[in-house]
């Protein structure tokens, strides 16, 4: 079967257009990924600098706690960095020995303080959601408290 020269030309132009569109889309995705990575790196540097200023140095324990902290929206992260002690930050975000014990012992008070700092206040709705949270294993509780919004926490535990 012989294809006409016009069809072959159209086919080649179409393929070329598709390649160009693919390249442009790839660039756009790459730019968007770069912007996101830049924002995350900026947040990381801000948290590292803040911890250095506040606690005098950035040791291995605090450094390892930064990545989980970055899951929070910047305003909530800032409040936590300002208000939680080094030990509290390590309890919630670190991977340190005794972490589970620290979350088990004065658990209610620890959760109340974390919620108060994260959301700016601890109202009746949030307070009533704490009892079901106490039933969770520490790892799961920490993950949920860090990742879920106030509304999501209330929906799940309220």
Descriptive notes:
With 158 residues, the chain is mainly alpha-helical. It has one domain (5-157). The protein is 80% helix and 0% strand. The protein has 9 helices and no strands. Helix 3 packs across helix 6 (107-119) and helix 7 packs across helix 9 (150-157). The longest helix has 51 residues, at 5-55. It is elongated and about 80 Å long. The N and C termini lie far apart (71 Å). The mean pLDDT is 81.
- Helix count, DSSP H or I runs of 4 or more residues: 9
**Which percent range describes the beta-strand content?**
under 5%
What's the total number of strands?
Answer: 0
- Which regions have little confidence, pLDDT < 50, spanning 5+ residues? none
Order of helices and strands: HHHHHHHHH
Class inferred from helices and paired strands? mainly alpha
Q: Give the end-to-end Cα distance, rounded to a whole number of Å.
A: 71 Å
Describe the main β-sheet briefly: none
* Integer count of domains: 1
What is the share of helical residues?
A: over 70%
Keywords:
single chain; 158 residues; mainly alpha; 9 helices
List the helices and strands and how they pair.
Layout: H1 5-55, H2 60-69, H3 74-83, H4 86-93, H5 99-104, H6 107-119, H7 124-133, H8 138-147, H9 150-157
Helix pairs in contact: 1-2, 1-3, 2-4, 3-6, 6-7, 7-9
Offer a quick outline of the entry.
The termini are far apart. The protein has one domain (5-157).
């Amino acid at each position: 079967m012989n294809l006409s020269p016009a069809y072959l030309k159209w086919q080649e132009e179409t393929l070329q257009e598709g390649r160009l569109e693919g390249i442009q889309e790839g660039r756009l995705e790459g730019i968007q990924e770069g912007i996101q990575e830049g924002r995350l790196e900026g947040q990381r540097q801000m948290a590292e600098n803040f911890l250095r200023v506040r606690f005098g140095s950035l040791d291995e324990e605090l450094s390892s706690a930064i990545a989980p902290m970055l899951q929070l929206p910047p305003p909530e992260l800032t409040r936590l960095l300002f208000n939680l002690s080094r030990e509290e930050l390590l309890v919630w975000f670190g991977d340190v020995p005794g972490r589970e014990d620290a979350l088990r012992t004065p658990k209610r008070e620890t959760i109340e303080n974390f919620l108060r700092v994260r959301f700016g206040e601890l109202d009746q709705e949030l307070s009533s959601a704490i009892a079901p949270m106490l039933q969770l294993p520490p790892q799961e509780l920490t993950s949920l408290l860090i990742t879920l919004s106030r509304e999501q926490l209330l929906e799940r535990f309220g």
